[in-house]
Structures are given as C-alpha cells and as structure tokens.
Amino acid sequence: MPHKTRKYLLAPLIYTAAILLLFEEWLWNASKRVLARLPLIPFVARLESWISNFSPYAALAVFLLPSLLLLPVKILALLSIAHGHPTLGLAVVIAAKVLGTALVARLYALTQKALLSLPWFVRCRNAVLRFKDRMIGQLRATQAWQQIEAGVAAFAAMRRQWWEALRQRWQNGNGQGNRLARMIRKYAARRRDRN
Question: What is the per-residue pLDDT across 127-143, written as a single tens digit (0 to 9) for each?
C-alpha cells in the first residue's frame, strides 16, 4: 500500500486517538485538582499518608488495582450494550472511565516517588508520554484543530465581553435592573444582620 494512501486511511484513527488522549489529560488534571482536597478529611489523610509510604512494588499494585477492578465493570457495560441497552452500557462505561481516571490520578500522585524508583516503569512511562505528545502534536498541527482553537478563543473573548457588559449594566444600570440590584443587596444585608 502506498505511503500516501496509508497516511489518509490512518489519519482518522490518529486524530480520534489524539482527541481521546486530550480528554484523558483534561480528566486527569481536573480529577487531581478535585481529589487534592480530600486530605482535609482525617481518615483520608491517614490513608493517603500510609499509601505514600509503600514500597515500589506495593505502590505499583495499588496503582494498577483500580484498572483491574474496573475491567469487569466495563465488560458488563459492553454486554449490556450488546443485549440492547446501549444507554445504560454507555453511561456505565463513561462513569467507570471518569471514576477510574480520578482514582488512578490520585493514586499516581501518592505513589509517584516509589513508582519512579523502578527503572522499567520510568521507561514505560516515558514511552507512553512520548506517544501521547506525538499524537496530540499531530492533531494540533491540523488546520481543523487550529480553526477550532481560534473559535474557542473567540468564544471565550465574546463571553468575557458579555460578562463585563452585564456586570457594568448591573452596577451602573437604571430602571428595573438597578432596582433589582438594590433589592438583592438589601436582602443580602438583612440575611447578614440576622446571622
């Protein structure tokens, strides 16, 4: 098969993989931020302290455990889809993906020091990160992606302008808007006085 034909046939797969990797990266970072607040709970703080002191292979087992535990759930979801319940199956797959990624991200943050003491783990991790960066780089180099990024940036700028105009109208408004703002402020002041 000629190189150009193979390139065009593989392009949709590469871009799909890159989009999935971008989603995974966003989910990883978002879940890390959310789960970083959990140590405020004393039991969770003790559990995380205990996990962060594991030996490298115990840390590896804890790191891989959520993926292994969620595998049967994903298989059951696929069976549900195959037996005529696509919505339920898809909801279970998405929920398992979100929860699994969140848990793995937190466990990786806790066990990273121990895991990075294993040379073969570092090599595997670096290979995965290089692959991910290459796929995402190919996606970002496309004209379609650049148009999407320009559209998102334009939408964000428009949203900021709209919010600023709304805020200005709220502060300097006249008529109904100004009266409503005064009523809300009075109500909030009364609530504060009661407390």
Answer: 988 988 887 787 788 77
